[in-house]
DNA sequence: CCTGACATTTTTGTTGCCAATAATATCGGC
DNA sequence: GCCGATATTATTGGCAACAAAAATGTCAGG
């Protein structure tokens, strides 16, 4: 159906290719904050038309990953530490909301799922398997979010999260960090399992506060760059 | 410099004209949820090119006011009561965050400003001047937001708020509503004035919870449509 | 009278070209 | 030789025509 004779993608698909590609490049650090994104370059790089690149920029701007300056194109948005803290503060209350709802709605099967994640996290930290810990961390957030059933809040968090991945990178997998975050994660699980909304919310908020503290600490002493996004 | 000979606007200005116009139309109720927005119609209505309309649609989609269905155009987004509640729940925790920060940062001049707003609100409710009450309500939110100095949270709230104006309309200025919300508003002011972050946050969250309750009540018994957006 | 295929029309999506704008380089004056 | 004005270039913004898709209307067949 699609012609695709010379490798040039077309259709709405083309926009997604650019959006996903640029997003991945920003999140992985290939594109640095402040870097200019020239339409013609991306047109060639992704083998799409300029219109698709343009449309993709609109999406990425809405996502907060890039900013557009009139007549000067788009550049990767630079997020200051102060702004990152503000973003995390918002995330904190939103994650708290989700955790509270999760505590109210969790059923037996979901509870078992959480228990397994908690056990896995403890084992991973004990054995120093940071990669597994990072993976379980993402899984925990996803599971709690699913139990909480607050798609609006979850959506906001996703957007906020992507804006500060670069800051999170700096503190992820920093030596000793898993030892700090593990009990915080377990506290969230416990709160949900106990059907204690207030406790789950408090635990979630405290966890994000701990991330903020770590980020502010690391602001002056930039840590090593790693690939997993554990917090 | 701008030609503007035949009334057709051009430049980046054109997109903004459409965005503002459509947004105002949606918020004021001229455009009903689910209503289709045909590009050609808006092109004629606003005297802009189709490209500007298209670009404006991208912005409005990001704002959550309209939704785009591939090859079927955009329509005014229909927000269910359930989703409105979810949005309000997010707003609740975010407003709580701002109120808490405001309590921590408020200075004497700002405190006096809040006191005046509070007094004005009491007087307005006592005399039944709903319009002034509505105006002061907006002013209170803006002032607290300014004191809280959380632009990220404030921005999220603005976006969330615009998505449910139609629902808020239904309950605004409903008889007896100001009597319910006045003490809630005063509690927020008191918490901030007392530099009591926890109290201010609780007050802000309780206020939004009250809005949720009113909205759920009014879901089955649709109220009268009014123009001011008090909550 | 209903049903399904086909043609028509409406509407959106895309492309290529031209204009406007800002950054850069060049040139003349002091 | 340095500074400011002007020309050049690179890049984005906008427009109009074109192509594709979906919805609608029409008509023949049962």
Distinctive features:
homodimer; 231 residues; mainly alpha; Arc Repressor Mutant, subunit A; Four Helix Bundle (Hemerythrin (Met), subunit A); three-stranded antiparallel beta sheet; 10 helices; 71% helix; disordered N terminus; DNA-binding
Summarize the structure.
The structure is a homodimer of 231-residue chains. Chain A is built from ten helices and three strands, in the order H-E-H-H-E-E-H-H-H-H-H-H-H.
H-E order of chain A: HEHHEEHHHHHHH
Number of domains of chain A: 2
Biggest pleated sheet of chain A: 3 strands, antiparallel
Annotated CATH architecture of the largest domain in chain A:
Up-down Bundle
Quick one: overall form of chain A? Answer: elongated
**Number of DSSP strands of chain A?**
3
- Alpha-beta content class of chain A: mainly alpha
| Uncertain stretches of chain A | 1-7, 222-228
CATH topology of the largest domain in chain A: Four Helix Bundle (Hemerythrin (Met), subunit A)
Explained architecture:
The structure is a homodimer of 231-residue chains. The first copy, chain A, has 231 residues and is mostly helical. Chain A has two domains: 12-76, Winged helix-like DNA-binding domain superfamily/Winged helix DNA-binding domain (Arc Repressor Mutant, subunit A, Orthogonal Bundle), CATH 1.10.10; 81-220, GntR ligand-binding domain-like (Four Helix Bundle (Hemerythrin (Met), subunit A)). Chain A contains ten helices and three strands, in the order αβααββααααααα. In chain A, strands 1-3-2 form a three-stranded antiparallel beta sheet. Chain A is elongated and about 55 Å long. Residues 1-7 and 222-228 of chain A have low confidence and may be disordered. Chain B binds a DNA duplex (30 and 30 nucleotides) through residues 10-12, 14, 38-40, 49-52, 54-55, 70-73.
């Amino acid at each position: 159906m699609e012609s695709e004779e010379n490798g040039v993608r077309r259709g709405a698909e083309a926009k997604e290719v650019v959006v996903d590609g640029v997003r991945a490049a920003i999140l992985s650090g290939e594109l640095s904050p402040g870097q200019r994104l020239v339409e013609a370059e991306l047109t060639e790089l992704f083998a799409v038309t300029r219109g698709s690149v343009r449309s993709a920029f609109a999406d990425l701007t809405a996502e907060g990953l890039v900013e557009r300056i009139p007549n000067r194109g788009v550049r990767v948005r630079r997020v200051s530490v102060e702004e990152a803290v503000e973003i995390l503060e918002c995330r904190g209350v939103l994650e708290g909301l989700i955790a509270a709802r999760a505590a109210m709605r969790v059923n037996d099967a979901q509870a078992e799922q959480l228990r397994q994640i908690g056990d896995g996290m403890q084992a991973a930290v004990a054995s120093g398997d940071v990669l597994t810990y990072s993976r379980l961390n993402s899984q925990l957030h996803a599971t709690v979010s699913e139990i909480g059933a607050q798609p609006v809040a979850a959506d906001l968090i996703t957007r906020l999260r992507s804006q500060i991945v670069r800051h999170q990178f700096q503190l992820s997998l920093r030596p000793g960090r898993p030892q700090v975050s593990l009990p915080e994660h377990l506290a969230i699980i416990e709160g949900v399992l106990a059907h204690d909304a207030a406790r789950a919310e408090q635990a979630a908020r405290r966890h994000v506060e701990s991330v903020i503290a770590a980020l502010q600490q690391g602001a002056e002493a930039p840590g090593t760059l790693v690939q997993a996004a554990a917090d």
